[in-house]
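Lab notebook page, bench 4
Experiment: in silico fold of construct C2
Operator: M.H.
Input chain length: 218 residues
Purpose: comparison with the prior construct
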Amino acid sequence: ALFMENARKSNIVSRANSIGSTSASSVPNTDDEDSDYHQESYKESYKDRRRRAHTQAEQKRREAIKKGYDDLQAIVPTCEQQDFSIGSQKLSKALVLQKTIDYIQFLHKEKKKQEEEVSTLRKDMMALKIMKANYEQIVKAHQDNPDEGKNQVSDEVKFNVFQGIMDSLFQSFNASISVTSFQELSACVFSWIEEHCKPQMLQDIVIGVLHQLKSQPY
């Protein structure tokens, strides 16, 4: 009886162990699966962060480009003018760039034109300074000796001297001056003065005229 009782208990233990082994083998390994799940979640989260950062950077870049075009459209006058060919539609980026390029080229031409005008005005100012200095010397000499040479030379002789000087100067003046426009005339006049009215040249002209009139009776 004791032997039979021990055999029955041993059989029950074996069956219990068998059931336990089967149940344990059918239960999933939750620790490993949790580790894989968290790792996959981390990977997806990192990708999402990269995607979000890339999207934000791209958005900032587009906003910066848009602001640049808006600033150009506000600064360039021709972009603000109504273009009847496109109606009330918003200007395209290509059209804004083209109008900006055209306006910059226009500004370069205007700058060059103004520089040329400034150069011409400087020449005019220099010529006027020379003429002013000469007239001041003549006035001063007349004020210092108001009666010197009075009534010694007739008006006819004075006129002949003046006419001889002017005739000689007019030859070079007529060959050098262009009357296409008033601006060109002004530039040519002062250029002619600088080239043909130098003190030494004027002195030679006056001496030649005086020698020519010296032999004529009055």
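Observations: The two ends are 185 Å apart (CA to CA). The mean pLDDT is 75.
Next step: discuss at group meeting.
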